[in-house]
Amino acid sequence: MLPTIEAMAEPDVEAIATLRLAAFFGGTARTLEEDIAGLRGLIAGDGFEAAFVARLGDAPIGSCLFVRNEIDPAHDLTPWLAGLVVDENYRARGIGVALLRAVEAHAASVGVDKLYLYTWQARRFYEALGWTAVETFEQGDEPMVLMERSL
Predict the structure, then answer these.
(1) Could you tell me how far CA 137 lies from the centroid of its own chain?
(2) For residues 28, 95, 113 and 136, what is the CA-based torsion angle, rounded to 10 degrees?
(3) Residues 120, 142: contact at Cβ < 8 Å?
(4) What gap in Å lies between CA 63 and CA 8, rounded to an integer?
(5) What is the full per-residue pLDDT of the chain (151 aa) written as tens digits?
(6) Residue 62: CA atoms inside 13 Å, Cβ hemisphere, count?
(7) Measured between alpha carbons, how far is 133 from 151 in angstroms, rounded to an integer?
(8) Phi, psi of 68 (to 5 degrees)
(9) N or C: which end of the chain has fewer CB within 10 A?
(10) Sheet of 114-119, strand order
(11) How many CA atoms lie within 13 A of 16 on its CB side?
(12) First vs last C-alpha separation in the chain
């Protein structure tokens, strides 16, 4: 069975927040409740920002976000592809690429011609998909790469 990529809905939120917490916020003070609240705000937003989910049957197994703002105060750029995550049991199957392409398509549909992202581990993944590294820097003593892609 192939996963479907759709707009995130309320039934997806807790599972995706749990996945995000493990992937991005381990060792930080961010709570599950905070991430759930953030995702709920995003999916209830104005339609410009968006959250996408990969589902296998009814189970959410990955997510990617399109947001106006990303980590502060690093760069004053907008908008952002953010939070691309796929459950480790389903990686290397094209799901991350499908989520990324869903965000790019949404961005183009709302008139965006350039997207940005931050990564600290997946630079080669994004470069293979047409993203360009713009700058390397440190965020909280961790190496980061700012990347961009024209749509």
Answers:
(1) 20
(2) 40
(3) yes
(4) 8
(5) 678 999 999 999 999 999 999 888 877 888 899 999 999 999 998 889 999 999 998 899 999 999 998 766 567 899 999 999 999 998 988 899 999 999 999 999 999 999 999 998 899 999 999 999 999 888 777 788 999 999 9
(6) 27
(7) 15
(8) -75, -40
(9) N
(10) 4-7, 50-56, 59-67, 80-86, 114-119, 142-150, 132-139
(11) 29
(12) 30
pTM for the model stands at 0.90
Residue 140 φ/ψ region, left for φ over 0, alpha for ψ in the -120 to 50 degree band, beta for the rest:
left
How many residues are given for the chain? 151
Tokens matching residue 80: 């952002």
